[in-house]
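Forum > Structural Biology > Help requests

Title: Can anyone predict the 3D structure of Glycine betaine/L-proline transport system permease protein proW?

Hi all, first post here. I have the sequence for Glycine betaine/L-proline transport system permease protein proW but no way to get a structure on my laptop. I'd be grateful if someone could post the structure tokens.
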Amino acid sequence: MNNDSSHTVTDFDTHSDPWMENATASSSSNSDWLNTSATHMPPDHFNLMSPFQHKLIPFDSWVSHLVDWTVVHFRPVFQMIRVPVDFTLNGFEQFLTTLPPPVTILFFALLAWQLAGAGIGVFTLILLIVIGAIGAWAEAMVTMSLVLTALLFCIIIGLPLGIGLARHERLAKIVRPLLDAMQTTPAFVYLIPIVMLFGIGNVPGVIVTIIFALPPIIRLTILGIKQVPSDLIEAARSFGASPRQMLFKVQLPLAMPTIMAGVNQTLMLALSMVVIASMIAVGGLGQMVLRGIGRLDIGLASIGGTGIVILAIILDRLTQSVGKNHRTRERRWYHAGPIGLLSLLFFAFFPIRKKTTAPNNATPHHANKNDTSNTVSDLTTKGGNCHGHNHLMQQDHK
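Reply #1:
Sure, ran it for you. Structure tokens for Glycine betaine/L-proline transport system permease protein proW below:
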């Protein structure tokens, strides 16, 4: 009975599809999709109401090709740029890391006393001791060397460029959009081309910090030069001041507070770049913060962040004190601070006799370059306004 039923089923299958064509067709239909090409979708037509559904300008490929072309053709040039940065950075780093910490602390405390007074000197002394006490001294000195190197190159590049742009308005209009782009571009965007052109390490970190922190000193140098009162410039010209005397004895002294504000902003931006630059293997306090974030170690990240804040406070106080208007100071810089104390002790033990000079009416008065230089300097020392000009005009009439 069972055999009959099995033969019946077999006969039914073989008679209905003896060559197994249905099975072959079904299997081929299931496997042919691997070899068939994708169905071509009809091209999308430009829709005026939504024109930006698709990319119209291949800006990303343009930038990629430009960077690749620059790397291939100008890599030796960028390697040469590394040389002065590397030399300066190594000098600062060796000076700050090879000295014993007490000597370095004493040096910065005396420097703060000289520039900002005894109170800031004591404050700097305490803060540097705190950095060493929390275990961030070596990293703080590396960060200090990075920031000082970036600041030095920003001053070397930004100060002459700002002076030149202040004198050429058309050129300033061309450079201003570039400065806007440098300030508004996210800091992370700088890292990729810098790594491709300069590699990784402390030197590329300094270069990316220079690019990021350069615009403020250029802008504020331009602003400071343009804010010099025109009557003082005319008074200096009337006394025969040369362009060099005009710049170094009138414009720069009066613009110095604004320029130092730019230096201060450059320092703050350089310190803010420390953590971001640590992503390209830059050492220092930023590396501590990055490791703390990666390990979820809030204590390690807090040590690095506290060190950055302390360095920012110290450098901010120092730059603001240097930017103080020299006309408001009662004494010269070499008469104050530790240098003034040493000079006072020196002259106390080794007094110098003053030479007797001839009466004023014994020598005829005539104008020369020194008189012109002293007269131009008097424009900035006697109030820096129209009163100095009136005073000089009265002397001239007498």
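Residues 5-14, 361-367, 385-398 have pLDDT under 50 and may be disordered. The longest helix spans residues 59-98.
Shout if anything looks off.
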